[in-house]
Amino acid sequence: MKPTLVLAGLGHGQLEILDRIEEIREHYEVLFIGKCQTVYTGAFPQVIAGLMNSATVRLPQLEPAAERILAIDPHLQTVQTEKGPFHYDRLVLATGAVSRGIGTPLKPMSQALLDRIDSSSQVTIVGGGKAGVELANTCVRTKKVTLYAKRVLPDVSTRRQKQMERLLVRSGVVVIKQRKNDESSEGLVLDATGVVPVNWWSESGLANPDQFIETDEYLRHYQFPNIYVTGDMASALNGGVDAVRSGRYVAERLLGETTRPFRKRQSMNILLTTTGHALLTFGRFSWHGRLPYYLKRFIDSRYVRHYS
Ligand SMILES: Cc1cc2nc3c(=O)[nH]c(=O)nc-3n(C[C@H](O)[C@H](O)[C@H](O)COP(=O)(O)OP(=O)(O)OC[C@H]3O[C@@H](n4cnc5c(N)ncnc54)[C@H](O)[C@@H]3O)c2cc1C
């Protein structure tokens, strides 16, 4: 009898695993727990900017056994869902993390959230990291935008930070260089301050309270090696590019194609700025111009086409 593999959540990494589902099914009885579709975050701002019609990606070739994972018993090897418990021999977690809780959460992302942003004439974005700055740049094309950010893009050089802040202001974004610490709201308040752990991880004994999940160098839970952790859930990973790479790696592990540890790499990010322009960052290196814009559009439309 084949061992049972439970794939939980339609995160970015899981899509990479599902891409190889035919091969995986030769080795495992596969159960998927999660929704049939999700929103690809890379393309989310492009939909807001009117550059793409949809950022929705879909579950390929599988019927979900249940929609929501509620808890896990790693000792009994069961996942609890709204449809009851399921046994696993191996489990891949890709259910992502959640927004911190200021105003309207951006994560988990949904089409309903995109529709809400679309129909709002005024938005306040909290957080000056890459997600917040890209959202401000795209929302300001059709809305009044306020951005609360102590610093704009703290990971890039000071010269680049100043340039990006000038561009935001020139486009009409009201940049308030402080934390948002009152309840007042100017339109729809979007939380772009980053993600935090979800309670069921610690309640299930997978992590300490308010901590991300620790893994070994093979992305297996440090205590329960039959559980793989991908994407934002894993303390060792960082951002969407890592989520995708971790999924590809776990697929290789499940298929017995690799015995090497997961290699962490510096990731490239590209965010939309003014019309027809984007900022590419790679560590402290950054490049602003048209070419990063075309590169981003190419990468994201190819991704959404592939998975939709
Ligand atoms: C506006 C914005 C733009 C971004 N742009 C970029 C970018 O350009 N590049 C980049 O690298 N990163 C980007 N990020 C970060 C990126 O979104 C995350 O790092 C990435 O989504 C993490 O993927 P993941 O696989 O962990 O899970 P997620 O993409 O968060 O997906 C988790 C999935 O699991 C589902 N789920 C949640 N809970 C459960 C449950 N209990 N049971 C079953 N299913 C569940 C969710 O509905 C969702 O479908 C952006 C973030 C934001 C907010």
What does this structure look like?
By secondary structure, the chain is an alpha/beta fold. The protein folds into two domains: 4-97 and 197-254, FAD/NAD(P)-binding domain (3-Layer(bba) Sandwich); 104-193 and 266-307, FAD/NAD(P)-binding domain (3-Layer(bba) Sandwich). The chain is 29% helix and 24% strand. A hairpin with a 2-residue loop joins strand 6 and strand 7 (84-87). It has nine helices and 19 strands. The strands form six sheets. It has a five-stranded parallel sheet, with helices on one face. The relative contact order is 0.17. The chain starts with a strand and ends with a helix. Bound molecules: flavin-adenine dinucleotide. This is FAD-dependent oxidoreductase. InterPro entries: FAD/NAD-bd_sf (IPR036188), FAD/NAD-binding_dom (IPR023753), SQRD (IPR052541). Residues 70-242 form the FAD/NAD(P)-binding domain.
User: Uncertain segments of ≥5 residues (pLDDT<50)?
Assistant: none
| Helix-residue proportion | 25-40%
Mean pLDDT: 95
User: How large a portion of the residues is in β-strands, by DSSP E?
Assistant: 15-25%
Distance between the termini: 33 Å
Bound molecules: flavin-adenine dinucleotide
Structural category: alpha/beta
Structural shape: globular
Spatial arrangement of strands, main beta sheet:
10-14-11-12-13
Total beta strand runs: 19
CATH topology-level name of the largest domain: FAD/NAD(P)-binding domain
CATH architecture classification of the largest domain? 3-Layer(bba) Sandwich
DSSP helical segment count: 9
Number of domains: 2
Look at the structure and name the CATH superfamily of the largest domain.
Answer: FAD/NAD(P)-binding domain
Cα gyration radius (Å):
20 Å
H-E order: EHHEEHEEEEEEEHEHEHEEEHEHEEEH
Protein name: FAD-dependent oxidoreductase
Pfam family, one: Pyr_redox_2
Organism: Exiguobacterium marinum
InterPro entries: FAD/NAD-bd_sf, FAD/NAD-binding_dom, SQRD
